[in-house]
Amino acid sequence: MRIIEVVGTALAVIMYSVQTAFPTGQKFMPVISQTNKTPGVGNITTERLLNGDSEPGGWLTGGRDWRQSYYSPLTNINKDNIQKLGFAWSYDIPFDVLFESTPIVVDGVMFTSGNHGNVYALDARTGALRWSFTPKVDLGILRVQCCGGVNRGVAVWHGKVYVAAVDGMLYALNADKGEVVWKIDTIIDHARSYTSTGAPYIAKNVVVIGNSGGEYDTRGYITAYDVETGKFAWRFFTVPGDPKKGFEYPELEMAAKTWDPDSPWDIGLGGTVWDGMAYDPKLNLLYFGTGNGLPWNRKLRSRVAGDHLFVTCIIAVNPDSGRLAWYYQTTPGDDWDYDADQKLVLTNLKIDGKAHEVIMQANKNGFFYVLDRRTGGLLSATPFAYMNWASHVDMKTGRPVETGKADYSKSPKLVFPTQQGAHNWNPMSFNPGTGLVYIPVLEQGEIWGAGEYTDRKGQWNVGASVVDPYPGPSGMDSPIAKEWPSLAELSAGEPDPSPRSFLRAWDPVGQKVAWQVSATDGSNKPVYGTSYGARYVSGVMSTATGLVFQGHIDGHLRVFDAGTGVLLHSIDVGTSMTAAPMTYSLDGEQYVAIMAGANAKAPAYADYKYGNKGRIVAFKLGGSAVPQRALIEHDEGLQPPVNDLAKPEETAAGGKLFAQHCAACHSVAGRAPDLSHMNAQTHQEFLAIVLKGSRASKGMGNFSAILTQKEAESIHAYVIHLGWETYQYELEREFQKTTTPNGKN
User: Fold this and answer.
1) CA 568 to CA 386: how far, in whole Å?
2) What b/e string do you get for 297-319 counting C-beta neighbours within 10 Å, with b at 16 or more?
3) Is 117 left (phi over 0), alpha (psi -120 to 50) or beta?
């Protein structure tokens, strides 16, 4: 933790803001005229947020309130009547990829976002569409965004709806009609692989947005714009640029001292802000988390050991000026993609008999942090999931104590948690009634090995090799893993590294688990070459009546007792879910709603059974069963439709290209279809998909700018070979089941 003195620095901020208000390619574009009339729809104000408990039926921010608690004081739906909760209405969305947004409901209207930054305004009583907005996006941008152009939500303020399109254009829309009020390009360099996936956030008089691309060639930053006019206010870079070129503001000069002066500044070095913001209107502080360093391998990022500020930090800035108030670094010198972009929750806790205004985060790295939100002072940091990269956090220095077990610089290591994190973007919920935080948790190990890094513009390039610890051609039998020690050797002394997901109730004062339920239904072992199911955890919402709501990729919305974890109700939605539910009330009727849609692509899950067309589904007491879509027929167990005829050298070359360009999404760890089970039609269209973007509307970008036809053909040859290897592996697995007593192996 560090506290930064900001007195006397306002002049430097003003000068910086004027000089960089509209850099090259960044133009402010007002579209319709402004009026001073009080908006009839979407008129959220600071006063309304501060008095949100007097308006319990609304859900005014992504996390409902200014504290981002994902908690509702509504009481109509309770433990006595929860069994009567059923279908109220739904709205179909013509995208079959991942949906991560939590809707906002204000003045009887539901506002939410879909892929690419599409916006939907619905009648919250019926689900009828009031208006929708589709940004004009060059779908080629999807090549550098995994996967499918996801979007994590909108902000609503003073009659406007704010959304960031995947290409980085920030829009302010009229909340009543959906017309564009103003728009501005937030990307400072379109030659780099910047995209936007996070929700904009309102802090006093500015709307703030970050960006993604920390695995490519980006330098992280957030930018603030005037909420009414869209004019540039300030920008905060999360990592310094080349010291030889000077610093945009003094904090970066301080940060540069934690880097090798000869670091590869030209590659950007990461630190992107893609989620996890909160604002305290009483303290007038904006909080946000920062992402991983680039490359992941810190020894490639900087020859000299250092903390590499401000990557993997929780940061507080003054929203009037953009100047740093304090920071706390969760993973100094990050080596494992342990972003600190997870949701931040503001609350008051009594610790050791003393009241504290705190900010809480369940970090990717496995520690649950409680900080003083005025100063950034560390109050506690305790593991909420198994980890082997660190033993504990030294409370005197605030630094994690690394064990050395996860140092893969000289030899591969099994690392807990994975780069997916013990907790990722999926919202957690704090219930002030129970005093517990409900966290979607992933327990899993992953094998890391050192890789090479060359500056490849517009390409995934992390300087490390990461393999899931499973048998089979997508795991330990992959070309990379075959050169490593055996899984038995790597996992000696460690728990089962297979993925297991949990809903875990955490006591932030007692620093312990109160209860947990498993969200893994036996599918954690890979079937059809994938473990998507167990790796997918879903966001959480809790209520004043002691209920905890969580969706699941199996298509069920489940309701638990907030005090004990006992399952009280389960609704078959028929669509996979990873976003957080929310609740609101209108005319005395309480509703629960969720954005549904996730592409786990495993046989046990709803998207595999029914397809993955997205939808918003709402529930109410006395509702009916959720209408189900038609089942999809799959040719399970059939051999691949294309013969494996390529020469070994072509397959090997294709495998390297696949690892470089495709594996981040199309792998066990990815969030896109498993290509080892492609059907005949996809094989036939393969080159058109890769080189012409024929499936860009489904989230698969055009790779013609970085792949030749020969290279695409080599990748296809490798995918065909992978399909046959997977098929043989599955045959052997099934044979073992039939020849082993009781079908066990």
Assistant:
1) 28
2) bbbbbbeeebbbbbbbbbbbbbb
3) left
Q: How far is CA 592 from CA 425, 552, 617, in A?
A: 21, 15, 8
Q: What is the pLDDT of residues 686-734, one digit of tens each?
A: 999 888 888 877 777 788 888 899 988 998 999 898 888 877 877 776 6
Higher-confidence position of 301 and 5: 301
Query: Where are any strands of DSSP class E within 34-127?
Result: 71-72, 85-93, 104-106, 109-113, 119-123
Distance CA 189, CA 403 (A): 39
Are 681 and 695 in contact, with CB atoms under 8 Å apart? no
**What number of helices (H) and strands (E) belong to the chain?**
10, 40
- Going 721 to 726 to 731 to 733, the CA torsion angle's sign is positive
Tell me the pLDDT tens digit for each residue of 645-690: 888 888 888 888 887 777 777 765 556 677 887 888 889 999 998 8
pLDDT, tens digit, for every residue of 167-178?
Answer: 999 999 999 999
The phi and psi torsions of 177 (rounded to 5 degrees) equal -115, -20
Task: Look at residue 727 and give its three-state secondary structure.
Answer: helix
3-class DSSP assignment, residue 372 = strand
% of the chain exceeding 90 in pLDDT:
67
Give me the sheet containing 180-185, strands edge to edge. 28-30, 180-185, 169-174, 160-164, 155-157
Q: Which residue has the tokens 């996730």?
A: 598
By three-state DSSP, how is residue 120 classified?
Answer: strand
Q: Which tens digit of pLDDT belongs to each residue from 624-653?
A: 999 999 988 877 667 888 888 888 888 888
658 vs 465: CA distance, rounded Å: 13
What are the residues facing 308 on neighbouring strands?
A: none
DSSP label at residue 664: T
DSSP string, 422-442: SS-SSPPEEETTTTEEEEEEE
User: What contacts 201, CB < 8 A, 6 or more positions away?
Assistant: 155, 207, 208, 209, 277, 278, 279, 286, 288
Q: Give me 203's structure tokens.
A: 């802090």
Mean pLDDT, rounded, of the chain = 88
**Cβ-contact 277, 288 below 8 angstroms:** yes
Cβ(324)–Cβ(13) below 8 Å: no
Tell me phi and psi for residue 346, to 5 degrees: -105, 135
At 503, which amino acid appears?
L
pTM, to two decimals: 0.89
Contact 49, 65 (CB under 8 A): yes
* Residues noted as catalytic: 337
Outline where DSSP puts E strands in 546-682.
Answer: 547-550, 556-561, 567-572, 582-586, 589-596, 614-621
DSSP at 626: P
Helices 709-739 and 648-661, axial angle in degrees (round to 10): 100
pLDDT above 90 for 382: yes
> Three-class SS string for 487-523?
HHHHCCCCCCCCCEEEEEEEECCCCEEEEEEECCCCC
Q: Per the structure block, which two tokens stand in for 283?
A: 């303290």
348 compared with 1, residue with greater pLDDT: 348
Residue 10 dihedral angles phi and psi, to the nearest 5°: -60, -35
Query: How many C-beta atoms surround the C-beta of residue 612 within 10 A?
Result: 24
Cα 505 from Cα 439, distance rounded (Å): 6
In the chain, the amino acid numbered 466 is V
